[in-house]
Amino acid sequence: MTSWLKDAFDKPKPVIAMLHLSPLPGDTLYDSAAGMQKVVERARRELHALQDGGVDGILISNEFSLPYLTKTEPITAVSMARVIGELVDEITIPYGVNVLWDGRASIDLAMATGAQYVREIFTGVYASDFGLWNTNVGEVARHRHRIGADHVKLLFNIVPESAKYLAERDLESLTRSTVFATLPDALCVSGLTAGAPTDTQTLSIAKTAAGDVPVFVNTGVRAHNVADQLAVADGAVVGTYFKKDGIFENEVDGTRVRELVAAADDFRKSL
């Protein structure tokens, strides 16, 4: 199943950069005085900083829609579609979308905007910072098929941030059953929160149990550890490290992007 990565990206073990959109209409922190144009302008600056820095893909998310909903309001995906529509002609690399924390809305947005992949929580029941959190992967998978979005790849976050899986199951058995029963296109392994390190041993357990399904390291990738992480994982999703001073709220810093991509490229030359 790793063949889709080869088809989608120019390099092995791709580095996918998060493009975190500013708070959107309906969000508690939305700047209604500045309006959507400010959201678009920041997204444009960060898109070009990431692309110019050499990342292999982009994942566009409403990361600043805090506190998150597990079933989003329509205005969120609609606003994200507005931003992507204004930027799509400037996107030169594969891109995906993530409407936090709503798998169905993520697939709808991908279908509407031409995105090639989505990342979301598609399986499990959790006690989370956002309350009791349930999913229905069968319903979402059927929805994807019904709207003609089978080409949209689903990246399952197997270790959700800010949440604990309610069933007492170890990561190995959880990964094996997820791969067998729910047909993910890839798995993402995370730390506790955005930017938190992902334990390499945890990553190795998931990679071994996933078989042919690609596994991405989803948080905590930095220039100094990207080689170690990619030695295990099939790719990396990077957000916080690319920000100025490595601070989640800041804008993307092109120097940090180039630094991490260079470290990743040095490792990938040996493959």
Describe this structure in words.
There is one protein chain. The chain is of the alpha/beta class and 271 residues long. The protein has a single domain (3-266), classed as TIM Barrel, CATH 3.20.20. It is 38% helix and 16% strand. The protein is built from 9 helices and 11 strands. It has helices at 3-8, 36-52, 74-87, 103-113, 137-146, 171-182, 200-210, 226-232, 254-268, and strands at 15-20, 57-61, 95-98, 117-120, 126-128, 131-133, 153-157, 163-165, 186-189, 215-217, 235-238. The strands form 2 sheets. The chain has an 8-stranded parallel barrel, surrounded by 4 helices. Strand 3, helix 4 and strand 4 form a beta-alpha-beta unit. Helix 3 packs parallel to helix 4 (103-113) and helix 8 (226-232) packs across helix 9. The longest helix has 17 residues, at 36-52. The chain is globular, with a radius of gyration of 17 Å. The two termini are 19 Å apart. The relative contact order is 0.15. The model has no long low-confidence stretch (mean pLDDT 94). Belongs to the BtpA family. This is BtpA/SgcQ family protein.
List the helices and strands and how they pair.
Blueprint: H1 3-8, E1 15-20, H2 36-52, E2 57-61, H3 74-87, E3 95-98, H4 103-113, E4 117-120, E5 126-128, E6 131-133, H5 137-146, E7 153-157, E8 163-165, H6 171-182, E9 186-189, H7 200-210, E10 215-217, H8 226-232, E11 235-238, H9 254-268
Helix pairs in contact: 2-3, 3-4, 6-7, 8-9
* Total strand segments: 11
* Average residue pLDDT: 94
Give me the number of helical elements.
9
Content of β-strand: 15-25%
Q: Helix proportion of residues, in percent?
A: 25-40%
What structural class results from the helix and strand content?
alpha/beta
Kindly report the name of the CATH homologous superfamily.
Answer: Aldolase class I
- Give me the side-by-side strand order of the main sheet: 1-2-3-4-7-9-10-11
